[in-house]
Amino acid sequence: MKAAIVLGATGGTGQVIVSELLNRQIEVIAFGRSESKLKTLMEDHDFDQRLSYKLGDIFDCQTIVDAAKDADVIFQCANVIYQEMEGKLHLLGESVMKAANILKGKIIIVDGIYVYGHQVAKGDENHPQHPHTKKGKLRVEFEKLIFSNKWENAKALIVRLPDYYGATSQNSYLQPTLEGMAAHKTSIFIGNMNTPREYVYLPDAAKMIVNIAEKDDAYGENWNIPGAGLISGKEIIQMARKVTGNRKLAIPLNKTAIRLIGLFDPFMREVVEIMYLTKEGFILSGEKYEKRIGPVPATPFKNGLEETLRLLMYNKK
User: Fold this and answer.
1) Which GO terms of the cellular component aspect does the record hold (predicted)?
2) Residue 135 CB-half CA count within 13 A
3) Which of the residues 112, 230, 249, 317 has the least number of beta carbons within 10 Å of its own beta carbon?
4) Is the dihedral of CA 22, 56, 89, 166 positive or negative?
5) Domains of the chain and CATH, by start
6) First to last CA, the chain
């Protein structure tokens, strides 16, 4: 891989993939619709000559084709907000896959674990897909679209992440907790604080995603991006307090509380149906990655949380 384009480059996963690609001396085209955010991304990387940007609309296939014509690989990190998923997710998939098909290129789709529903077996890539939520069912249809035979010229793969955290994270369930702790405010925690859950540190995820993308035989498959193990909300708060010195309350929000907030907040209204993940958790197996790629990068939670919180505190100065 000599050159790559990152769609949704200013998002949480997009930013870390841009950084990882640049660390590997790969030329990167950052694609997005906000020029101000793209310029900030350029500035964050000290205007690295290997980094350029292209303005475009993820729903406009031709703008992707024009921007990606010199790229070997497309990293699809753009997403749609929860409350618009039903109307826009399929359109996004059609647009990016049509572009990859026209370019006869490789494309990596960054996705989550809603396709599985409740965990009933080992969380490997062959786990049954029996989603019981609207979002899960939409994601199953999205996967079918990505791997459709109609894209005869494109090579696609899907990487699946659990909940994640990191300084670039923007829409994860853990983000309001860490932002509140970093700002020395009362914070919230979405879900049961006693349930051990899996989180992946975004820089680790980026390493795994790029490693997979570089393997020619990885395409046409789903790949898990596991975290560094399990950790409860209480443990996260304890670690965060040591870093920030914040002793203010961290308030857990259960399904009832989220439903009430959802009366006024359309995003939180959509969160209600996937609250089962915050109660049960879902553990991804990294065996396939270890067997075919290598050791799973797993930054200890103590280190990852400390780095994340210090950067969040610095950015708030």
Assistant:
1) cytoplasm
2) 20
3) 317
4) positive
5) 3-165+199-227+282-298 (3.40.50.720)
6) 38
Instruction: Tell me the chain's radius of gyration from C-alpha atoms.
Output: 19
**What pLDDT is attached to residue 316?**
64
Query: What is the rounded CA–CA span in Å between residue 276 and residue 191?
Result: 9
Q: What pLDDT, in 10s, does the model give residues 220-234?
A: 999 999 999 999 999
Q: What ranges make up the beta strands (E) of the chain?
A: 3-7, 27-32, 51-55, 73-76, 106-111, 155-160, 163-165, 187-190, 197-201, 222-224, 230-231, 250-253
- 280: Cβ contacts below 8 Å, ≥ 6 apart: 118, 119, 195
Q: Who's near 78: CB < 8 A, 6+ residues apart?
A: 7, 8, 11, 14, 32, 58, 92, 96
92 close to 64: Cβ distance less than 8 angstroms: no
Lay out the sheet containing 230-231: strands in order across: 163-165, 197-201, 230-231
Contact 191, 272 (CB under 8 A): no
Sole residue written with tokens 């993940």: 277
Which parts of the chain register pLDDT below 50?
none
